Amino acid sequence: MSVTTVPTTPYDDQKPGTSGLRKKVPVFQQARYVENFVQAIVDCIPDRAGRTLVLGGDGRFLNRAVVQITLKIAAANGFARVLVGRGGLLSTPAASCVIRKHGAVGGIILSASHNPGGPDGDFGIKYNTANGGPAPEGVTAAIYARTRSLTEYRIVEAPDLDLDTLGETRLGDMVVAVIDPVADYLALMHDLIDFDAITRLFAGGFRMRFDAMSAVTGPYATAILEGVFGAEAGTVLNGTPREDFGGHHPDPNPVHAHELYDLMLSARAPNLGAASDGDGDRNMIVAPGLFVTPSDSLAILAAYAHLAPGYAKGLSGVARSMPTSRALDRVAASLGIPAYETPTGWKFFGNLLDAGLITLCGEESAGTGSNHVREKDGLWAVLIWLNILAVTGRPAQDVVRGHWATFGRDYYTRHDYEEIDAEAAGRLMDGLRAKLAGLPGTRLGGLTVAAADDFRYVDPVDGSVTEQQGVRVTFAEDARVVYRLSGTGTAGATLRVYIERYESAPDRLELPVADVLAPVVAVAGELADIAALTGRSEPSVIT
Ligand code: VG1
Ligand code: CO
Fold this sequence. Notes:
By secondary structure, the chain is α/β, with parallel strands linked by helices. It has 17 helices and 27 strands.
């Protein structure tokens, strides 16, 4: 089998964002686009000779084709072995698990997460390092620099491999092992979670619905919930991964998972509703009649994690992304453990996890995880919830209400303005930044600004500094507004506005969310002049 060196010219738009390189499918379909980017990643793995690489994706359109190209480039660049999930599938947390378990040098994950798929949808390529986590800033910067100076890529000329049969084959000097995408992940979950207690819970008549949104978690959820725990057939909805996710947006929130959401709010609701996103790293939890905000879910998991065997010794510390509500901080304070605040994106948690400073972490965007892998993990969060319900014997809605009674409630909402003009978005953020110094002490629509800044993160482990991570304005009335631009969109800019308000009086724990937040929403719009600058009177998505 011969290695060919193919001359190429660089593309200048291959800068990895928060979660790798994400673009519309036709962009990836340009000649040499995928080859260039994969070769650039490979060039940034200097210790690859004789090592193992992990490869898999969320099954979206282009997944199989890009797996084939990546295998051939890997074989031409000195890797000894590639572990690829059967069918080219690996959820993001499972890929992280496989990298760690098999001592791989890194992994390439093919996903655009919650973004839509199909020929007109999005695709993405992400590189994770040997700790199983997203490549840190230094590595993604090196990959980007490499994409701009590339003059050739190396590839073996070979027919496509069979990705659907478990076992090993050779590609040049490299071994390709097609592995069961679920097995290693299932074994890890078995170590962390009380499978027996959950099996008894289901045997006692407990019912749930898990919406895999036609994305990668279908096989994982079916194997564990229906296969291991014996949950009734049909527990997993939309359990077959599809290249276009059935035409849906695989984002687990009340808007995009509305069928499940509506079921949970109806009289026919089972005991628990859950969903996961395209690549399996996010989760949505809905109790009967009660949506659990991701920020609350994170706080509740922290409060009860010790009930799961993997966390029986307690937590060393916790972390949340800055826009995530402060509910987690209240739990940390009561447990007497440190709580860290990081910029948005999982890579910032990696250092804290590797250093043992934290055990559990999460984001308002429905990502929750722990030190078991270095990615957020949707199904893991659902299993911890089941573990809590099984051990306490309490209904999910009681657990949530009990949490509010103890800690108070952080009312929360996020307003997304999608596909707005990128320049206008930049002007809006600049305008806000220019105002910050003058804000403290100002009265706005009945609220008093207590503090205002542009979040700057100093990594407690390596001292690295990350600037301009979101404008935050806190109010004396226990309210807060955060503004930031998305790093994962593929068209124009997306403005995210995060709005929250804390209430602790016993008679103020069950008010309509919109009512409690209305004054803060109004101030948020006014302060940033959102309508005038974006030309939008309403957000595109409210979660
Ligand atoms: C979004 C979320 C962020 C998450 C990121 C990747 O980023 O807000 O919390 O870490 O997606 O998640 P942004 O920059 O668009 O706000 V995933 O499930 O796409 O890996
Ligand atoms: Co995701």
